[in-house]
Amino acid sequence: MAPKAITSPVPDSLYPTLSILTLAIGLVLTASFFIYEATTSRKTRSLAQELTTGAVASVFLGFGSLFLLIACGVYV
Amino acid sequence: MLRFALTLLLFTLAFGVLSSSPVFSDLILAKVDRRIDLTSQIVRITTSLKVENAGSNPISEILLSFPENQAKHLAYLTATLNEGKGKGKASSGAGLPTEVVIPKDVPDSLTFYSVSLHKGLGKGESLLLDVLAVFTHALEPFPEKISQADIQLLLFQDTAHFLSPYKVMVQSVAVKLPEARVESYTKLEGTKLSGSELKYGPFHNIPPFSYLPIIIHFENNQPFAVAEELVREIEISHWGNVQVTEHYNLFHGGAKSKGEFSRLDYQARPYVRGASAFRRLVARLPPRAHSVYYRDEIGNISTSSLWGDSKKTELEIEPRYPLFGGWRTAFTIGYGLPLRDFLFESDGKRFLNFSFGSPINELVIDTLIVKVVLPEGSKDISASVPFPVKQWQETKFSHLDLVGRPVVVLEKNNVVPEHNEHFQVYYKFNSLSMLTEPLMLIFGFFFLFVACIVYMHADLSISKSSASYLAKVQWEEVQATVQQIHNIISHCLTAHDKLEASLRDLSRTGDVQACKATRKSVDSLLKGVSKDLKPLVTFLQSSPQAAHILPKVEELIAKERDLQERLMAKHTTVVDCYEKKLGGREIENRIASNQQKITSLRQEVDDLMEFIDEI
């Protein structure tokens, strides 16, 4: 079998765009999480909704910050 | 000069001893042409041998011998079979395997290398062999110390006769010098100096182990850049980059500088007052190199330039000061390379294919350490290098690491540009391991959110019995109750909308059964609602803090009930009319009064809902 070149899962030139996009989504979700925390009272707050918003926001923020690191030249 | 006289004497002695030793084998060297290249600090001796088998037994190995003073400087040796007839044609095929051997009956002062032939050389047959031997630190500066204005003179010693265990029929030596200026050279019969080329020979019928010393004293102002230690770190990231960092510890290996250094003189006439110094080095980096930097311990060095095309990237660097003999400098070069050019996969294994030596031109490296940093989670690591090296493994901690990255370390002494061959590091890697890094970041953020949730849910007040605390708790309960009532009413309102929608459907399709079914489901839903509302309203009535909201809430509930009843009545009427097959105008007349009330009630209920929502 002839050797096959290995490439990155995402083309290098896409990292800056991807990082801006995912970080924007992540920050909007974070904002909605904190708005929810501030506007509901302790009795009416639903733990499930808090956790889901937090989890989805952290997935976007995690990938966003990874792409940001790579776009800046810190290849982790 | 005393030292050279001594060495000379030694070799004459050795020659005396060796000439008495027996003939080594039946091989005869019919023709030996040697070209000694002294144009740089690295001595390259290219020897083309015509080997003939004069005996009757086939022979499969040829011995090459080097005197002790050369053997310890030997950095690289390769022998290739020259099958092409034309002179311009390069020797073909890969190098033949060479190894150090210690034959019997030879003095210790000689080192032998054995070249194994792929197929034996039969009786009367002959072959052409090209041998390239590269020596470092073989040129001795003489005088050893020079001042800034002096030129650098070097001494080179070798033998005019090819030192070989075999008899040599015809041989000649050509020495290529960097400049026409030659201080002195050993004059033998038939020695010719034309321009910068010095020729000895031809010599005929020389017995084995013949040694005829020659010494050449010549000018050489080429850069003597010697890296005492070079550490190359090659870090692979599967996210698309191979990062190379090279730490150089460089010195000028030529004649030592003595006296003071005048920057003024150097600046005014650099090629006269500082001819032996060098001020720039050129590194040939692979194509598509990016993020190139050149710095030392105190920061960026700005004197460098970079240009590139599709075949290479050239980096020209200038140290902070010109380097004179014995002066040293340390700096770091770093660059990133695209992953696809160097990392490959075959048979389920990944491998890095990278050049071993330094990218800097004509650099001698005393100790080269190549570190290949593999991604975290690599297994079954093995390295394949085309020449013997010391190797071991280490672990390195870098960004977002849990257990550290495995590092393959390769160490080799005496490295010359000829060692710039590709080497491979094989390893196994599961692509899913790439996800550990983003997962760590994701969990980091998630813990932040969880911390916020815990903080918001925890009750951090110290006094649980104070009046203000109790009032706060009660008010929160009232708020929660009102919120619940609001939710229930908004459910009711959606049920109302459903009823209205079913009526619209009825007027369009005339399907009475579907309309009745909707009515039934809405009925059961609304029945449950009144049961849910009762305890909530009772709680509000009993709570003193809800006093000012209570009238509004009760009004809302009453209005909603009214609205509900009217809507039901309207619904019943319309369905009845449809069952009796009455005309559209008749139906409209019947519900007209009800319809007006419903619209106004709905408006009032919506206003009240908005008011309650703002509490």
UniProtKB/TrEMBL annotation, chain A:
GO terms for cellular component: oligosaccharyltransferase complex. The lineage of its organism: Eukaryota, Viridiplantae, Streptophyta, Embryophyta, Tracheophyta. GO terms for biological process: protein N-linked glycosylation. Component of the oligosaccharyltransferase (OST) complex. Pfam families: Ost5 (PF05251). This is Dolichyl-diphosphooligosaccharide-protein glycosyltransferase subunit OST5. The chain crosses the membrane at residues 20-39, 51-71. It is found in: Membrane. It comes from Arachis hypogaea (Peanut). Belongs to the OST5 family. Subunit of the oligosaccharyl transferase (OST) complex that catalyzes the initial transfer of a defined glycan (Glc(3)Man(9)GlcNAc(2) in eukaryotes) from the lipid carrier dolichol-pyrophosphate to an asparagine residue within an Asn-X-Ser/Thr consensus motif in nascent polypeptide chains, the first step in protein N-glycosylation. N-glycosylation occurs cotranslationally and the complex associates with the Sec61 complex at the channel-forming translocon complex that mediates protein translocation across the endoplasmic reticulum (ER). All subunits are required for a maximal enzyme activity. It is a multi-pass membrane protein. Keywords: Membrane, Transmembrane, Transmembrane helix. PANTHER family: TRANSMEMBRANE PROTEIN 258 (PTHR13636).
UniProtKB/TrEMBL annotation, chain B:
Belongs to the OST1 family. InterPro entries: Ribophorin_I (IPR007676). It comes from the Eukaryota. Pathway: Protein modification; protein glycosylation. Component of the oligosaccharyltransferase (OST) complex. Pfam families: Ribophorin_I. It is found in: Endoplasmic reticulum membrane. This is Dolichyl-diphosphooligosaccharide--protein glycosyltransferase subunit 1. It is a single-pass type I membrane protein. GO terms for biological process: protein N-linked glycosylation via asparagine. The chain crosses the membrane at residues 439-458. Its main location: endoplasmic reticulum. Subunit of the oligosaccharyl transferase (OST) complex that catalyzes the initial transfer of a defined glycan (Glc(3)Man(9)GlcNAc(2) in eukaryotes) from the lipid carrier dolichol-pyrophosphate to an asparagine residue within an Asn-X-Ser/Thr consensus motif in nascent polypeptide chains, the first step in protein N-glycosylation. N-glycosylation occurs cotranslationally and the complex associates with the Sec61 complex at the channel-forming translocon complex that mediates protein translocation across the endoplasmic reticulum (ER). All subunits are required for a maximal enzyme activity. One of its GO terms (cellular component) is oligosaccharyltransferase complex. Residues 1-20 form the signal peptide. It comes from Arachis duranensis. Keywords: Endoplasmic reticulum, Membrane, Signal, Transmembrane, Transmembrane helix.
